[in-house]
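Q: Can I see a sequence and its folded structure?
A: Here is a first one.
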Amino acid sequence: MYDIVIIGAGVSGCAAARELSRYQARICVVDKEEDVCCGTSKANSAIVHAGHDAEPGSLMARLNLEGNRMMEELSHELDFSFRRNGSLVLCMSEDEMPALQALYERGVKNGVEGLQILTGDEVRKMEPNVTEEAVGALYAPTGGIVCPFGLTIALAENAAVNGVEFRFNTEVETIRKSEDCFELETKNGTIKTRFVVNAAGVYADKFHNMVSGTKIHITPRRGDYCLLDKTAGNLVDKTIFTLPGKYGKGILVTPTIHGNLLLGPTANDIEDKEGTNTTQAELEEVITKAQRNVKNIPMKQVITSFAGLRAHEDGHDFIIKELEDCPGFIDCAGIESPGLTSAPAIGKFVAEILRDKAQLQEKENFIAKRKGILDPKTLSKEERSELIRKNPAYGNIICRCETISEGEILDAIHRPLGAHSLDGVKRRTRAGMGRCQAGFCSPRTMDILARELEIDMREITKSGGESKIVVGLDKDRL
């Protein structure tokens, strides 16, 4: 019997787990995938939004602003990458300037600090590669960029160190409410708990509708992206948006926290909650619209494309509350953009609901800080030499594109909630994220995984489940 079970190990679920781990309670996070950050949280724009887009008075607007303000201190506490690079919302015609002014006024009403409306010349002085068609822009200095993997993994590791249990490969199939608890039927047996937090992303409506007479509906909204090599990463410094429309903030052009250039996303409502395939039409849309806003984009430097799903709820606001007709069931649903930005505040909000409802008592020994994987590239030449002398694994480079050492991969495997797949290593270290997209380092990373996990090479997967890499070979031929 758990006190609290959180369904979903994405950024919202892990943020709630981390905040709840401050209290004396038996907490478990369950997820159908093999690791944290395998759904919506792994494929998004990695933007920390300033907060001028959400409707004033909405929960989305409130938690966006609060999450933005929390992000910098949290990045120091949990040791993940974050930078306030600022953002620009471009206006491409004089006829649209009133809409830009309205966006400015909305941002002011939401409490966003430092907003300015710039002329086209002022924009190009700030960002020389913005096209001549831009007649103005809304500048938000509090906008930022973050690593979504780094943030989610940091939250999860800190929660685990503070006693939260994580159960992966554990898909929840049904939920029943009895007199004194909830019973979650999973593919790995029954889990009982006093409280449920529904942080299941695009599947949150499925679980909500199992226990509530008031139904909600979530539409998977697919967005395609193009990622460019680090040689293109300095094309712009700010995150470049266009004026938002019915389906969101449009195609953006932004540097990433690791120095790449990212273009996207599109917005296409689909039925398939697993439909993360890219399409030629949508990738062409990304390229065409990005080039309208920013010139000189070196499209030959694209190293990969991908798609992610946003959990768009019909009411277009976050749903974070205990259900009136099902006490003990807390929704954390409809978490679409700016969900990544809002995650720290979402976690705090969920924890406050349960603190009061379950009468939770704070721990005296809560561990607030976490240290991430050591990156030898941040050390001086002398410090790096000393590190390699003490541990030669840090001198054995496995991923040449990102200069990732065996020592970093070993740390990724053996730390709390360590990696068990190629993608697990990639999310934690960036081994395989470079220009060759794991063409060189995959076999070497697999060797390390097999050795450290003491498993057969044929058991290693790209991303869990049936995504095995070595098939059809006898053991003595490996």
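Q: Show me another, different protein.
A: A second, unrelated one:
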Amino acid sequence: MQVVQLESIKPFVTKDGSEIRELLAYRNSCIRNQSLAEARLRPGAATTPHFHRKTEEIYFILEGQGLMYLDGQQRSVGPGDAIAIPPGAVHTIRNTGSGVLRFLCCCAPAYEHDDTVLVELPGQAP
């Protein structure tokens, strides 16, 4: 049985600029086809707009408030919200609250820097 404690995981910064702690993935567990990470954004911070060629993602907001941009649409998000992000969908999330925005990132297949393509959003970034 593998049980990983969040605070025991060393954080790293993804290609899109978010700080994550990868809880479970092929790099550190028996999991082979997906990954689970906790991401944190400080107040006012945002991920760089990007898409993934292969990976589908689910963001699940744990705490804080954010503005989610996904393929031309924007929506305020908060605790309890789950966001479906299909492969190829341009997305970014901005922390609009006064505290840390914490959310889970579920990726299938597992997150890889090489699958992340950074883009610019002319006049539309949240």
